[in-house]
Amino acid sequence: LDPTQVALDPVAAYQRHGEGGRAIVFCISRKHAAITSEEFNSAGIPCAVIDGTMAKGLRAETLQRHRCGELRVLASIGVLTEGYDDPGVSVAILARGFGHPGLYIQCCGRVLRPFDGKEKAIIIDLIGNCWEHGSPDYPWTYSLSGKAMKSNVLKDAIRQCAKCGAIFAAGKSCPNGC
Hints:
The protein is α/β, with parallel strands linked by helices. The radius of gyration is 16 Å and the shape is globular. It has five helices and nine strands. It has a five-stranded parallel beta sheet with strand order 2-3-1-4-5, sandwiched between helices. Strands 6-7 form a two-stranded antiparallel sheet. Strands 8-9 form a two-stranded antiparallel ribbon. Helices cover 26% and strands 19% of the residues.
């Protein structure tokens, strides 16, 4: 896909794969986040935009509404990428590309934290970031010289299930049992 294309509409992707979990959609622009939020709300899935221009009080209120489940989805533009900690969030929808693997891993990490009652994290990659950077759970080499981050796993070690679209390590079975 080119950087302006997505494999599946974020709402359809959430409905198909999100299992009703609290989600963050990582968007490319404020306009994209606004459109995404409108589409979720039109589908009956409560969603709000969160971005860096929001007043602190409104941002805190929006995050609290998401934390308590009143909002199922947040359409984020540059706010929840790093340092945000709500371990109850179980779905990350990557509706944008990430030029740097560090930011990609940070965004995926928003859902990888353990939480009571949370059985799994779901990362829905609509752009193909995993093909560019590898799986976020693969081992990485960090360096202060040269390329700052490098995946220790070859990209050809990644497979995609033809039936459900899941991405997994080569030599393993589809995690969804397909």
